[in-house]
Each structure stands twice: as structure tokens, then as C-alpha cells.
Amino acid sequence: MSRPETLKDLKEELASIDGQLAGLRALTVRRTRIAGLIRQWEALYESKKKRKTAKPSLEAVAKRKVLTPTAKTNADYAAQAIQKKGPLKIAQLVEEVRALGWVGSGDDVVDRKRIYVSMYETKGRFSRDNKGNWSIAREQAEAAG
To answer: Do residue 77 and residue 132 come from a single domain?
Structure first.
């Protein structure tokens, strides 16, 4: 027969189990941290690897516009749209230049920024009123007309 366990024996065994569990918790925390570091390293390595080896698809290459000496700039498209429709806000201008054959990114926000920057950087060619409508600058319009 087994001897009956005393209260002291039970408390000692419980303390031993608690110690072992604390060690397991510490190992679990350490394991979680290491696994996280490994995922971060792999993600970093994979993103660098993809950036170096990424090549544009044939579709993207086919959509690219070949720049020739007669190719229009973004500002040229904007000027053509303004001459055709009159003063326009940037959002309307993007729609008009697309209708004229301008190939942007397809993202409205990006395309608005591209058109805006191209008009802003060609000093003296465009003007903007206090309502945000862009038009051909007076000097340019007088020279053309």
C-alpha cells in the first residue's frame, strides 16, 4: 500500500510543478520572440530579393509610352485640354487629358499630382485663379492667338 501523502509533501510537489511551469512560460515567451525575429528577417530578405529581381510584365512594357522628340509632356496635354474646354479644376483636367490620350497611372490621386506639378513647374505657362481653376497664362494665350 502507498503511504498517505502529507500536507507538507503536497505543498512541496505543488511548488516543484510551479517552478517547472515558470520555466516553460519563459521558454514560450523566448520562442515567440525568436519566431517573430525570424519572420521579420525573412520578410526583409524576401522584399529585397523581389526588388532586385522584379521585372515589369509584358503588359506593363507594352503600355509604356515611347518618348520621341515629338512626344507631349504632361503640361502639353494640360494646355491642349484647357484650350479645348476653357479653365478647369485639376480633377476635371485629369479627365480631359485622359480623353486626349494621356496615359497616367490610373490612380486619380497620383495623376492629379502629376498634372498639378507639371503645370506648376512650367512657370508662366499656366495660371490659377482663387477658385482653383487652371487656365493658359495671358501671355501664352496672346502669343498663340
So the answer is: yes
Residue environment code for 4-38, b if the CB has 16+ CB neighbours within 10 A, otherwise e: eeeeeeeeeeeeeeeeeeeeeeeeeeeeeeeeeee
pLDDT in tens, 86-118: 999 999 999 999 998 888 888 889 999 999 999
Q: Residue 107: its pLDDT value, please?
A: 87
- Cell numbers standing for residue 75: 503640361
What are 68's three cell numbers?
520621341
User: How many independent structural domains does the chain possess?
Assistant: 2
- Least confident residue range of 21-25, 48-52, 79-83: 48-52
Residue 14 scores a pLDDT above 80? yes
Domain of 18, in residue numbers: 1-54
Same domain (yes/no): 131, 81:
yes
| Same domain (yes/no): 17, 72 | no
Phi-psi region of 86 (alpha: psi -120 to 50; beta: other; left: phi over 0): left
Q: What is the CA radius of gyration of the chain?
A: 34
- Are 76 and 134 found together in one domain? yes
